[in-house]
Amino acid sequence: MTAILSRPSGTSDPAREVADRRAHLKDAIAAHEAEAQQAARQGDLAAAARSILAALDAERRMAGAGPQVLQVIKPRG
Predict the structure, then answer these.
(1) How many other C-beta atoms can be found within 10 angstroms of the C-beta atom of residue 22?
(2) Are 7 and 14 in contact (CB under 8 A)?
(3) Helix 45-63 to helix 14-41 angle, to the nearest 10 degrees?
């Protein structure tokens, strides 16, 4: 029964890929926030602003990871 339910080795798990992508983006957000704080402490406001924008971009991409509702709903013909 295990052989029937197991996935072939060449097939990837979409849920796992989404989880990995979200974890990577979460790490990137934390890194950008730390860079922004360090730059702000040093008085480099331009670098702090760039890091904040990069963190916001990663947050936006993280929110878009995974299945989208509009992709699941099909219009009635």
Answers:
(1) 15
(2) no
(3) 160
CA distance 49 to 54: 9
Tokens encoding 66: 């995974």
d(CA 58, CA 16): 19
Q: Which tokens is 75 given? A: 């219009």
* Distance of alpha carbon 77 from alpha carbon 73, whole angstroms: 12
Of the candidates 20, 3, 22, 10, the one whose C-alpha atom is nearest the C-alpha of residue 60 is: 22
Banded pLDDT at 1 (limits 50, 70, 90) = very low
Q: Are 39 and 13 in contact (CB under 8 A)?
A: no
Q: What is the tens place of the pLDDT at every residue in 50-66?
A: 999 999 999 999 888 76
Residue with tokens 């790490």: 27
